[in-house]
Fold this protein.
Amino acid sequence: MTSTPLVSIVIPAYNHAAYLAEAIDSVLAQDYPHVELIVLDDGSTDETAEVLKRYGDAFRWETHSNMGQANTLNKGWAMARGEVLSYLSADDALFPNAVSQSVAALQGDVVLTYCDFDLFDPASKVIRKVSAPDFSYREMFGRLVCHPGPGVFFTKQAFAASGGWNSSFRQMPDYDYWLRLGRQGRFVRVPQLLASFRVHEASQTFAVADELKASEPVRIISAFIQAQPLPSELVGLEGQALSSAWIASAQLHIRAGRFTLGYAALRQAFVLSPRTFLAPRILKVLFHSFFNRTLHRIVRVVNRFRG
């Protein structure tokens, strides 16, 4: 790459008009000099188009018929002219130095950077800081630890080699993509707060997953194993990875109240890898399955009273 590469950030916008301006403004406020912003309205039925019109020609934007997050991102990245690519959910935000700090870390064989981030509520009040773990490809595959969150940046060259997001995945398309992108080079954590991730009822990670979405962890891992020979560092972790995938599926079923399916998924996880199933972290997973949504609601109520 050049010393100051053009960075293209795509915002896929679907019915998040209430938050979209904050996301856009956070990109326009970057201290890095070469940023291309592309906002794609994915057939929103709220005031998203009106929000975009207020910006005039400050950046590239357009509206198309609804085709989902993955297809919208793939379209945006195909339009992008930058050597470095990124995306920002329409309800999230970047800190002003997010691009500059991330580009500085994209050196040598590094193909992706990710960062620490704040969780914030619908009123943009911080709930807590999330310190992302240092990257381990083995952990990402074997234990389904999705290291990158908001504030990821990756090279266009690695993107071209890996292909785009898989539009058949609607719950964890990012995790599927990071697994594939990890074949191209190293991921590096930037140990700074560079982004904010919004928690609200309509967000994908907070919403109740239907049965098809709850099956995604297993489908993603199975497809990754079958697609081509595994990288040498992942060989031998197949059973652990599939067991972890069933546990993640159980978590989604339980959170949605499908306890019979959740129990069946947990049983399958135990059969595949008893050691994985009996790891202490499983208690944490099950706790969050039952109480995560309730805890976030409680925190939001407390923040409203404090504010």
Notes: Residues 281-306 form the longest helix (26 residues).
